[in-house]
Amino acid sequence: MRIKDSLYIDDSVLWTSRRGRIVVLKKWIAEIMEMAHNNLGHFGRRGTLDIIYQRIYWPRMSKTVQTWNKSCRKCAEYNSPSSNFESKVVKLMYESLVIKRLRTSTYLPKYDGITERANRTIVQMPSKTLETDAE
Hints:
There is one protein chain. The protein has 135 residues and is mainly α. 50% of the residues lie in helices and 11% in strands. It has a domain at 7-79: Endonuclease III, domain 1. The chain has helices at residues 29-39, 44-53, 61-70, 73-78, 88-96, 113-134, and strands spanning 2-4, 7-10, 13-16, 22-23, 56-57. The protein starts with a strand and ends with a helix. The mean pLDDT is 78.
């Protein structure tokens, strides 16, 4: 039974006419995303879309996949930081001050021990200085 030019029902299942994909209900999208992205290897937006697009359809599917991938913590842990923070000015500053830039994940600061230790020292310095001066 044809519902719209691009949709039809066959055996109580809603299909798209183009490419013959199943149209899924909104309540199943999270489960499908969990399987297609999380369980099959965190392939990113394009890879996840390729997996889903073969057999399934829902409105604004590309946007859903993009949002899911951006909020995936595991993907964020393994992706390198954005190159947006590497302007020419910053690169020149690093060179002139002989600074070696280290890349770490924003979600895993434990891997950046040197910076964490330096930050702790910087925070403690004023406190220790004030305590010494007060004595």
